[in-house]
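Suppose a colleague, Dr. K., hands you the sequence of a protein chain of 77 amino acids and asks what its three-dimensional shape might be. Before reaching for any lab equipment, you can write down a predicted structure in token form. Begin with the sequence itself:
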Amino acid sequence: MSDLNPQPLPPGERIRIYVSPDITFDLKKMNKVTANILNKLGCGGCHSGRILEFQAISEFVVNPQTLEPREILGGNF
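The predicted structure, expressed as tokens, is then:
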């Protein structure tokens, strides 16, 4: 055992996923979103080597004409 020289794992690829609050707090929906993302990444069964980073959308922009708020997705208007 003294021959072992453990090394840190390489950093994983970060995948940022923006979800609305109604999805964030619903386990069934989050499981479905996770499965869909993993399928898009090419491996529906695992996310080995990838860090899935879920971000709840909490920013809005208001349309000045209608005064309706719209979620800002990924910082884009």
